[in-house]
Amino acid sequence: MTIVNLSDISIELFVTVMFFLLIIAPLVSLGVLRLFQGRKKAGFGLIGSGVIGYFVFQLVVSLLS
């Protein structure tokens, strides 16, 4: 078992990863749940907003690096 050194991670990268984990992943999960519940408009809306959030995430990461 190895120990991971986290001191090389910048605060910007940490914030963007937290944004991804706290915003984008739940949006997609709720979208899938709504699809299973038969609420297609709400499901596709949540998944679409998750995809848009992902592209914003990619844009921010590319600007930071």
In a nutshell, what does this entry contain?
With 65 residues, the chain is an all-alpha fold. It has two helices and no strands.
The amount of beta strand, in percent, is under 5%
DSSP helical segment count? 2
- What is the distance, rounded to the nearest whole angstrom, between the alpha carbons of the first and last residues? 30 Å
Taken together, the total number of domains comes to 1
Q: Give the tally of β-strands.
A: 0
Strand-and-helix sequence, N→C? Answer: HH
Radius of gyration computed on alpha carbons: 15 Å
Structural class: mainly alpha
List low-confidence stretches: none
As a percent range, the share of helical residues equals over 70%
Transmembrane segments: 13-36, 43-64
Keywords: Membrane, Transmembrane, Transmembrane helix
Task: Explain what you see.
- Keywords: Membrane, Transmembrane, Transmembrane helix.
- The chain crosses the membrane at residues 13-36, 43-64.
- There is one protein chain.
- The chain has two helices and no strands.
- 78% of the residues lie in helices and 0% in strands.
- Helix 1 (11-36) runs antiparallel to helix 2.
- It has helices at residues 11-36, 40-64.
- It is mainly α and 65 residues long.
- The chain has one domain.
